[in-house]
Amino acid sequence: MSSSAQLICSLTRTDIYLNIKLMCRSSAVPLAATCILYVVLASGSSAPADRELLDLFRTNFSLHWAAMLPAVLILVLSLLRVDVKYAMAVSIAAGAAVALFVQGASPLVLLRCFLYGYEAQDGTRLAQLLNGGGIRSMVKVGIIVLISASYSGIFSHTCLLSGVKHALLRSARRLTPFGTVLVTSVLSCAVSCNQSLATILTCQMCDGLYPKKEKLALALEDTAILIAALIPWGIAGTVPVAAIGAPMGCMFYAFYLYLVPLWNLITALYHDRIRAGRTAFTSFM
Fold first, then answer.
1. Could you tell me which residues are beta bridge partners of residue 118?
2. What is the dihedral of CA 31, 1, 60, 253, to 10 degrees?
3. What tens digit of pLDDT does each residue of 171-186 get?
4. Whole-number Å distance between alpha carbons of 78 and 90
5. I want to staple 229 with a disulfide (CB 3.0 to 4.6 A). Which of 146, 169, 236, 255 is the partner?
6. pTM value > 0.85
7. In terms of residue numbers, what domain contains 179?
8. Is the Cβ–Cβ distance between 26 and 218 less than 8 Å?
């Protein structure tokens, strides 16, 4: 399961499956628009497919059908709304079994994979694309989340953010709550350069904008989580772009990342305008 979805679930104390359901609704139109844009661009492009990259994966990987078992299990258990911790544990156990008994990995190699993730030969293109993962890669993120989460208690007991929160409440009356979360997340992502920290900061500053935590969780998913990858100096965008050797200009084609916030801002403004019209009509009557 997505670590960002789990983070927001923990911050807002909401149900992850309900959050995913709401995310599917809010992203349906942007996803369809993104697919259409890619089809149009691909049909008008004469650039050939990267055969070297296709051959690279074909040469280095020969997956048995059993390798699909961990992914199938996590999907099935998610559909059955099994607790994420148990679903992930079952998927990990299945993956370990496949590695040991189907792919012939030794217990030592499997343990190293758990700790350090996938490791291809250094200096190869495959290493640039796939190396990483494992428990070690999550240590820094875990430390950032722990330190950042400690701010919540400090802010709540010292009222350090009270002035900021009042300003955001005033802003929400003009920009709508979603618009305020969007602006806050852009600033948080630009300053923190880190998706997790930006999400935590945005959540702490905007937690009073929505009466329901589920709406705040959805707003965070549609803003801070996606916008972090659009910041040119942020980790979420620069690391994958550098890994594939692409220019930063390629972020222009990450349509989904900015269509989701844009679409939800438009719908929020539209619904706010309708509510204002109904209120004015009721007052007139």
1. 132
2. 30
3. 888 889 999 999 999 9
4. 11
5. 236
6. no
7. 1-42+136-274
8. yes
